[in-house]
Amino acid sequence: MKIIPKQYQELEVIFEAINSENSRCIAFASPNGHSGATSLAISVAKRLSGRNERVLVIDLNTCNPMSGNDLVSMPNALAKWSFGDISCQLNAQAIDDFYFLSITQLQDLALVREKDVFGMAILMLKQEFDYILFDMSPICKKNHANFPLHLLLSVTDLLLLDIALGKTTQETLDTVVSELKQANCKRYEIVVSQMFMPPLGERLIESINKRCFKLPKLKHRLINFVNKQHWLFHGV
Fold it and tell me: Does the structure show a pLDDT above 70 at 66?
C-alpha cells in the first residue's frame, strides 16, 4: 500500500476540505474497490496524528479488511469490540501513530444497525478522539454483511470518494452519486487516483504514432527521445 507523504500538496488540498467544515468524522470509499481509498485513509490518519491529534481509524470494509500488509505494526491478535458498549473505546489499539478498530473483531453487527446504538457509540468516541476515520466497503459492491451506508453517513461530516482514472466509468460514478443522495450524504468530495493510468511515456509514444505517421523521420526521433526518458515509464 502506497502512503502519501505528509507534505504532499494532494494531502494539503484534502485538509482544506476537512478544515473548511470542521469535519471530525470522515469516511473513505470507492465505487468498486482497489482505487486507493484505504491508502488515502491511512495517509490522512498519519497526517492528522502528525499534528498531535488523537485519530481513530475504524475499518468497516467487509470486502477487503485491513491486514498486516496495510498496517505494518498490526498485532497478530486484535481485541474483540462492539458499538453497543464501552469496548469500542477501551479496545482501540495504537497502530502506526493512530488508533485502530477492525471489523474482523466487531461483535453484534445486527445491534449496530440500530441507529441510536451506533449514534451513541460515535458520540462517546468523539469524547476520546479528535478525529474518527471510517474505511468503507466499495459502494457498488452489495452484500448482506456490509455496514449500512445510510447509517454510516448519518454520523459522517465528509465522505471522500476515491475514483480511479482508467477504471471508474461515468456510469459507475453516476450510480454512486445516486446511492449517496438516497443515503442522505451530507457532503462528499471526489479524490482522483491515477493508479490505473498507463505511464506517461507509453501515452506519449501512442500520441506520436497517431500524429506523426506521415513524418517517419520525425516520429522516429521523437520516440527515441521519449524512450531515453526512463522516468516517463514508471507507473503513477
Answer: yes
